[in-house]
Design a protein that fits this description.
Layout (H helix, E strand, L loop, with lengths): L9 H25 L9 E5 L5 E4 L15 E4 L4 E3 L8 H10 L5 E5 L2 H8 L9 H6 L6 E2 L8 H10 L6 E4 L3 E6 L2 H24 L7 H13 L14
Parallel strand pairs: 6-7
Antiparallel strand pairs: 1-2, 1-5, 2-3, 3-4, 5-8, 7-8
């Protein structure tokens, strides 16, 4: 009887998951363009590889219309390139720091969207004055510290600001938006919503002072949106039998 074949290596077993994430991350960059959250080659999306200390991120300085699944870069949680022929995003160290210190995060997004950056330039949080903000963010959108690109200083600022905060978005002072999510798509959604409410609240302030929503109402709105809104899983057929 022939010997049993050896079990597939870890690299082989994660190959399908990596292929899916490369495709997803490539596709999600088009959403940043679609919602006008980026210009030129600025901004980036990354996604954690399930059950592996790896993440997928876009290459640095490549036009959005030239991004493909094959051009996506796989990095370890120290930010070192594991797979890919191009240099990874200049924000790779920040993404890696978030993944190392926030294990619940499955996706990270960075944008320079106009209205959110205007708040970041003023070092001012976006106050929670809209039900849509209460739904998605559960609080104000906070301001993170000023940090220079090149090491994990930005990542430290993101983690220090968002740990213990409901908001999946932070406005890094004089820089731009970073968002987190359970996966990359959720992080992109948070970036879209961040720009939308930053624009609306900015316009509101041209007309007068926006009125904050009471904390207890914010709590109720946030709980409903996070736990009730949308299509909920159907109960199991044998539940309660």
């Amino acid at each position: 009887m022939p010997d049993n074949p050896p079990p597939p290596s870890g690299a082989a077993t994660r190959a399908p998951a990596l292929a899916r994430l490369r495709q997803q991350v490539s596709d999600l960059h088009r959403e940043l363009v679609r919602y006008r959250l980026v210009v030129w080659t600025a901004g980036n999306v990354s996604a954690r590889v399930p059950e592996a200390d790896l993440f997928v991120i876009k290459p640095s300085g490549v036009d959005y219309d030239r991004l493909t699944p094959d051009s996506m870069i796989v990095c370890d949680l120290a930010g070192a390139v594991v797979e890919g022929d191009l240099s990874p995003s200049s924000d790779t160290a920040a993404h890696a720091y978030v993944y190392r210190h926030m294990p619940q995060v499955g996706g990270v997004v960075h944008t320079h969207s106009t209205y959110a950056c205007a708040w970041a330039a003023r070092a001012e949080p976006v106050p929670c004055v809209l039900t849509a903000m209460a739904d998605e963010f559960g609080a104000e959108i906070p301001i993170g510290p000023f940090a220079l690109i090149g090491d994990d200083s930005i990542g430290r600022g993101i983690v220090d600001t968002l740990k213990g905060h409901r908001s999946p978005a932070v406005l890094m002072r004089s820089h731009g938006v970073f968002t987190i999510g359970k996966d990359a798509r959720a992080a992109v959604k948070a970036a879209v919503m961040c720009e939308d409410v930053a624009r609306t609240v900015h316009i509101s302030r041209q007309l007068g002072e926006p009125q904050p929503i009471a904390r207890e109402d914010v709590d109720r709105l946030y709980d409903r949106y996070q736990n009730v809104y949308g299509q909920q899983p159907a109960p199991s057929a044998d539940r309660g039998a």
